[in-house]
Amino acid sequence: MTRILDLPQGSFGQRFHLVSAFAPTGSQPQAIEQLISGLQAGERADVGAGGNFQTLLGVTGSGKTYTVANVIEKLQRPTLVIAHNKTLAAQLYNEFKEFFPENRVEYFVSYYDYYQPESYIPAKDQYIEKDSHINPKIEQMRLAATASLLSRSDVIVVASVSCIYGLGNPENFQKMGFEVKVGERISRREILGKLVDILFERNDLDLSPGRFRSKGDTIDLVPGYFNNIIRIELFGDEVERISEVDRQTGQVIEDLNYFFIYPARHYVIPEEEQKAAIETILAELEERLPMLGMIEAHRLKQRTLHDMEMISETGSCKGIENYSRHFDRRQPDEAPYCLIDYFPEDFLLVIDESHQTLPQLRAMYNGDRSRKKSLVDYGFRLPSSYDNRPLRFEEFETHMRNVIFVSATPGAYELEHSAQVVEQIIRPTGLLDPLVEIRPIEGQVRDVMTEIARVVEKGDRALVTTLTKRLAEELTDFLAQNEIRARYLHSDIDTLERTEIIRELRLGKFDVLVGINLLREGLDIPEVGFIGILDADKEGFLRDEKSLIQTIGRASRNANSRVVLYADRMTGSICAAMEKTEQRRALQMAYNEEHGIVPRTIKKPIREKVVEITDTRHIPKSDIPNVIIELEAEMRAAAERLEFERAIQLRDTARKLEREMKVG
After folding, report:
1. Helix (H) or strand (E) holding 104
2. Percent of the chain with pLDDT over 70
3. What b-and-e string marks burial along 64-79, b requiring 16 or more CB atoms within 10 Å of the CB?
4. What is the pLDDT of residue 616?
């Protein structure tokens, strides 16, 4: 069932305006024209979903994101861009923000820094309670995404595959929000009551997103999707002034005529719907209890009645999302609301690195279902908890109306279902696909060290990929012991901190980044002059044709870059990857010769720091003493500048490293 809601929305006069210092070149003009004409013509592929599908087959470094940005500006439609991992999503988010500074570009990924899902292991009779740590900044960005979609038309949301997971009902999110206007007659008590109803918390000391304070006739609040304070000043029962106030300095930034306050969380339920939902939950409980054994029935009854009491008293409970079907008034097995339901019907869907993203979208439902089965069977959850879930792929397909698949190596689904495949082989910079060499596995680490020394001498950086996490960690330590500045991009490192590690590589704080499959799709580092792929002949997920092509592509942003595959035999994947790379290189060389183009390395600005890196797992053990010295020097400098919060962060990180040294 498809539900795109016709919601009352805000001012929709804004238009997308692409800002760029350069014009489309190389293969871009042709690709842009073909994609736009294909989408505008409404070409229909012969698929069950009946969508208008286009595939952009673009080599790494050909400017696929810029091509998509031009298409968005031409079509003027709200756009959802889905990426298969948070690092890539963060990169796309920053790129689209640069292209559309006058419009709303939002970031929507899973907000958990740590997540241990609720589960039960029958063989051990072991119940594992849900344990998680929510990143408040990412939660704020998720709320900003939905608030923007309900109030503007010029919105691009860059999301991970978590966007197909259950989210609060957009109708409630819109309906329970309220507007305040200058001159409006409304009492202080009424405003405070409305804020509490939409899950704002009162806190007179710490005013952070989702909280408010009240002193006399002045109400200060920070919306969950906002950084600054919204101040509402009353004169009796009339709104006298509304202003945006800087949260740090307390200075008024702007006076406002009105402000719409959306709920502080996505799961908000009107009081009348709470009562109706509690009745249906209790009815399901009575129906379920006779089907369970005595222990399981007692367990389920105790938990459910406790949750209902919490919801009645406070409006929420731990794990309230497991009852979402009742609050949303959905039928059993009906698709849940998700981020896509906040978009209008004609939105543009861009699936980036589709060969990776589509399989992830397919897999999410089954993984969630299998985990919940034992919880339901053994009385920890009602069967309706199954319906707090991601979309099935066939349900996701019903939302796929106007779609661009973007990949250097599109999969079978994209190629079979697309009305056209648009190729983008020629790079605007004239850069060629890199030279690729094969060298024996014996002595591969020593050879890598020699290559690293060469590129570092030129002022460039190196990437090295291994097959396992352990090998990557050991290699990073070995390089550091040999006075090579190396770091490891760990999959457990916080989303925003990964982006900061890549930024530090570009700045030259270290020279080599070691990883596994994190160094593949979408990692744009013009400074990379060498990529070493260890054990390249070990056929498998990390060394198949697509993986090799993608990894080789990371070196295509530097005119002098090279790739070395360490292999003792020519596998089918190696042969196919090298053949395709050589074909593209030949086409690019011919184009450059015809147009008199000399390849030049991409010049890409390095962004300002967004977060401090507090995780230390990417630092080799032998480098820790030097890092501690650097941190302590930075700490003292920050303290002298009166930046005490930063000094405390640096001190805590240094102490954490000292503890790790003692344990080691």
Report:
1. strand 104-108
2. 89
3. bbbbbbbbbbbbebbb
4. 58
